[in-house]
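Sequence in, structure out.
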Amino acid sequence: MRWRWQDRLAFRVAFRMNRRQFADLRGGPITPPSLSLPDLFVTAVSVVMLLGVIGLAVLGVYVAFFTEIFFPWLIGGVLVLIAIALRPRFGKLDKQARELDRVDAPELFRLIDQVSAAIGPSRRAWSSLVIGWTPPPVPTASVGAGC
């Protein structure tokens, strides 16, 4: 509650930036984004962090098996456990997810077809979507109940 003013300020700034960017892009050609200096920097930092995690795991194995320090297996094991905790993890698809087809969501696929037609044949729209959506239960009427 006490940070509410910061949330409002951040929302206003983001809204203005979005509106300005939309006005700049409206009516212009659709071009793929180019690789910029911040993109390269973030990629380089990510690679360095990934190499650091791999290096930590290798160091842990080396310490555990090839050094003569006090409790090498304990120190090496801790290093390997830290590397395991810091490893990158990818999201998993929900077990109840199923493929969504044109029969389940005709409006969504109509929109996908419109966007695909607007951007031209050089790009490809999704032909099907996999989402974590389950259809609502179909109501059934009970026959002969209470009449």
